[in-house]
Inverse folding.
């Protein structure tokens, strides 16, 4: 392309736009860029008081949006994009940052503030190059910039303001107006890049690409190791709501998205991810209607997805990751001998695991050796502290056969236990026990608890001296008794529990060493047996798979046991309110028996009827989300 040789340099790369903004998509599509759209789930709630200037806030938000997508794609979609583009647009007036209005009143506040004045529009843009070539952890080369445009509004009459607000246009736009449409009528002048106001400074973007590809100046490229990426909490803490130098009084910029009645909530933003999660066929500069075929990455990945899962399962079952934790690595023949398996089959398995990023392959003299990646050592070795081996085996031995009968499950609306295992059983844990019947009693116990244990490992981990309460053969009710702090006060108990959950769900530190209470293991049946007394009860992956009447029995029991101030932490995957995401919850539902997946507000409502009041909801993006309640 003569007009922009830089854009054409991106051809053949997997470019991802980490934005739900239709305007950004259109601007980039119009110049012939081929890309996928994966809207970011990053919540725009960074503490504004931490930034010296508004553009720094916009750039950092753009960066976090893009990084969230880069990381999610790598782990959830098993593919690393080449380039991720993120952007964030804010309006500043009188030292205040205005984002998207949350409702009509908020739009009114913003627009009346802009009336008759000049303001600045900043768009922060981040271009991330994801570098996974070295076979090590993905490195992110981050280039960022911002663009400022000055805009002056005419004096706006009340009538004009309200008519514009009632048009609905302000709601998903920074500063509450769309310069490209009706909002253009409010504008007296624009100094600077018009498209920057619309949400994407195209000219600056192309110049930056030019600098990167011709070639980059080392000083401008910040190379960031994956490990060193600052993890920004996407859950709003009360502190975020209270602080914020640049957040203006009376404005609701930092409110919980689900309280917004106008702006795009997190749920909406998340749910828009699915339909757009595919290749965008650009109309191109030649015309608006010409569709060009593009490779359907998403469908291709889905086609191969089951094979990739099965490679993970088979390698885990054959204890390949245990063998390959050997520091020097092993040759194919050595692995084959130890498994034991055929050399040719082993080689295929190891090569496939390398291609999936689970193993590393290198040359040592004349031989080729395989060893675990860091991630495999951490999560796939059966004896590792954070091992997911039990969960993987549960997926292989139980979930996999069930999903082989998915068409029947859908036609009949029932779980396919009988078809898969030749035996009717209506509860998950009984089924887990069924498939372990072949094992010795001791092994059976281990298998059940291991499977559930590693599913719950985002919540807790074993350590000498710590014990977990087990009911119905699976360790899913956890009853910590605060021995060192005999009884926490109501408020402390709640806060401590959630902080604990947050720490352990981040998977960064040895979980239980962070926990300041002891945990007792009690084996039993939580429907029949008495529950032990505790200050905090944790129901991890229990409620979703229970029918209403069993939920009632369990929650009534817990409600009776809990005195005011006692906590109940429910860990499940939370659906969004429109039941569109997360994918993991909806896929899990396909194999469920009598239960149902719920959203956080559904759980909150359910628990309320048993006297538990919601204190905190945590969407982790991990295996489990959590809702913490306190008994009133
Ligand atoms: O004149 C206009 N000004 C601004 C816009 C649009 O406003 C939004 C700005 O919001 P943000 O940068 O947070 O982007 P989102 O839409 O939330 O999408 P992300 O997924 O990237 O967070 C942006 O859409 C601008 O296009 C406008 O249209 N006209």
């Amino acid at each position: 392309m003569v007009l922009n040789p830089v854009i054409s340099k991106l051809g053949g790369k997997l470019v991802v736009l980490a934005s739900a903004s239709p305007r950004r998509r259109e601007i980039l599509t119009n110049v012939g860029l081929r890309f996928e759209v994966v809207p970011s789930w990053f919540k725009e709630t960074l503490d504004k008081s931490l930034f010296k200037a508004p553009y720094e806030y916009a750039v950092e938000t753009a960066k976090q949006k893009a990084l969230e997508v880069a990381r999610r794609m790598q782990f959830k979609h098993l593919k690393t994009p080449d380039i991720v583009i993120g952007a964030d647009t804010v309006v500043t007036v009188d030292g205040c940052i205005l984002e998207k209005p949350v409702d009509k009143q908020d739009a009114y506040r913003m627009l009346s503030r802009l009336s008759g004045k000049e303001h600045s529009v900043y768009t922060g843009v981040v271009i991330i190059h994801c570098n996974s070539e070295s076979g090590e952890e993905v490195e992110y080369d981050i280039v960022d910039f911002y663009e400022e445009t000055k805009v002056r509004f005419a004096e706006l009459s009340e009538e004009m303001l309200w008519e514009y607000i009632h048009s609905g246009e302000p709601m998903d736009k920074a500063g509450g107006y769309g310069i490209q449409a009706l909002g253009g009528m409010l504008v007296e002048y624009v100094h600077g890049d018009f498209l920057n106001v619309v949400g994407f400074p195209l000219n600056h973007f192309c110049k930056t690409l030019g600098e990167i590809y011709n070639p980059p100046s080392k000083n401008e490229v910040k190379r960031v190791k994956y490990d060193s990426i600052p993890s920004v909490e996407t859950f709003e803490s009360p502190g975020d709501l209270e602080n914020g130098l640049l957040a203006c009084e009376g404005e609701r910029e930092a409110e919980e998205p689900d309280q917004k009645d106008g702006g795009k909530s997190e749920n909406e933003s998340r749910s828009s991810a699915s339909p757009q999660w595919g290749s965008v066929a650009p109309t191109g500069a030649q015309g608006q209607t010409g569709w060009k075929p593009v490779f359907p990455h998403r469908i291709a990945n889905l086609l191969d997805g089951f094979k990739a899962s099965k490679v993970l399962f088979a390698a885990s079952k054959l204890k390949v990751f245990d063998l390959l934790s050997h520091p020097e690595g092993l040759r194919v023949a050595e692995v084959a001998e130890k498994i034991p398996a055929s050399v040719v089959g082993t080689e295929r398995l190891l090569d496939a695991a390398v291609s999936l990023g689970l193993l590393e392959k290198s040359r040592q003299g004349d031989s080729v050796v395989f060893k675990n990646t860091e991630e495999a050592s951490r999560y796939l070795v059966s004896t590792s502290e954070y091992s997911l081996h039990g969960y993987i085996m549960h997926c292989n031995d139980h979930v996999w056969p069930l999903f082989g009968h998915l068409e029947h499950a859908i036609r009949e609306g029932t779980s396919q236990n009988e078809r898969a295992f030749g035996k009717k059983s209506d509860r998950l844990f009984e089924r887990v026990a069924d498939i372990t019947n072949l094992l010795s009693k001791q092994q059976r116990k281990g298998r059940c608890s291991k499977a559930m244990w590693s599913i719950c490992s985002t919540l807790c981990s074993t350590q000498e001296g710590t014990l977990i309460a087990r009911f119905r053969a699976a360790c899913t009710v956890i009853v910590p008794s605060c021995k060192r702090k005999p009884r926490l006060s109501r408020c402390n108990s709640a806060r401590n529990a959630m902080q604990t959950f947050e720490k352990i769900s981040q998977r960064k530190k040895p979980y239980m060493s962070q926990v300041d209470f002891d945990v007792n293991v009690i084996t039993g049946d939580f429907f029949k047996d008495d529950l032990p007394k505790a200050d905090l009860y944790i129901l991890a992956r229990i409620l979703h798979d229970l029918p209403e009447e069993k939920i009632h029995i369990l929650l009534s029991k817990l409600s009776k046991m809990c005195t005011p101030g006692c906590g109940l932490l429910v860990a499940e995957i939370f659906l969004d309110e429109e039941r569109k995401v997360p994918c993991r919850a909806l896929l899990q539902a396909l194999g469920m028996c009598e239960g149902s997946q719920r959203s956080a507000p559904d759980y909150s409502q359910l628990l309320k009827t048993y006297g538990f009041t919601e204190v905190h909801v945590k969407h982790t993006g991990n295996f489990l989300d959590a809702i913490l309640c306190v008994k009133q």
User: Anything to note?
Assistant: Confidence is low (pLDDT under 50) at residues 216-288, 426-521. The pocket of LJZPGDOY is lined by residues 19-21, 23-24, 39-40, 44, 65, 87-89, 100, 172-174, 177-180, 183, 197-199, 264 (CB under 6 Å).
